[in-house]
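hey can u check if this looks right to u? its 376 residues, i copy pasted from the old doc so theres a chance i mangled smth
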Amino acid sequence: MDFQTLCVHGGRRGDISGSVSVPIYQSATFAHPGVGQSTGYDYSRLQNPTREHLEITMARLEGGVDAMAFSSGMAAVAAMMELFSPGDHIIASDDLYGGTHRLFFHICQKNGLCFDLVNTSEPDQIEGALRPGTKAIFVETPTNPMMQVTDIAAVSALAKSRGLLLLVDNTFLTPYFQRPLDLGADLVIHSGTKYLGGHNDTLAGILVAGSAELAERLRFIYKTTGACLSPFDSWLLIRGIKTLAVRMERQQESALAIARRLREQPRVGAVHYVGLPDHPHYAISQKQARGFGAMISFEVDSAGTAHRVLERVGILQFAESLGGVESLITYPALQTHADVPVEQRLARGIGDTLLRLSVGLESTADLIADLEQALR
């Protein structure tokens, strides 16, 4: 079945009412027909028919064995980290979303896990960080916010040669543009809040497992820790995914035009967009992905200029998050990455002149005009 058809119909099994829209089963618990009998649903923390539709859809879209929907992206990552035990070592991308960095170094580390952050775009750096206790490699690609790209197949080969799990955050590209499991990853992570939901109106997280053994382990963690997605929020994601393909294409088209125009602005320095042919990882992106996405980071000439842009934009909104139909502009140093130690932020280029842009579905011409007037 074509990807776009899967987006629309996903995990549909039919409903006795004939409802075209997936019903919202707003129930915490389900009655048993008799002793030792079940409808297949017992308690919504374990499974709910609305959430099940979403999970089947996501497993199919990513080519996985099973998917689990969580109450937020960070809830999904936190559950994933329960796969590991005190003393285990994880190698992760050094350009991490700030919330993931906070979880790793303020929660997981105190619970006995060890981390090394490296540029996962360079396999030699990964190999150099390996220890006897290394259990997994965690990759964001493209990274947030510097848009670095990791060769998933190459890192998978390294991980498999050492018996390690490869965990890939696919939030920026979604399965429409990139399918990490096909490239050798073991587990895919999404902040469903972003492109999957697509409307800036709900929080959600998704894990998609590539093997039955890993799915079984995660299902146990899922039902035990309990951060499951509610029926209504599951329905919002189902609704959002129906238009995922068309949104991703249109947002990418606008992003490329905006990235090119930003380069012409006298107050703009580097523009980080994977779809620009001179991006250092353009060739890797072409090899492993069907598209480049709609996320742009760019550097302006001073902190003052950055502040003026954030205060002057009209159509763009100065807000955290990304991936929705509304275009958002973010200041990583004070928002998404504020909890990353300053020296680490600066070493990765996340200073007070860096802005991050999530391109939505407004007119491309209007977005360009808004940026240009804010940059004057």
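The first strand starts at residue 66 and ends at 70.
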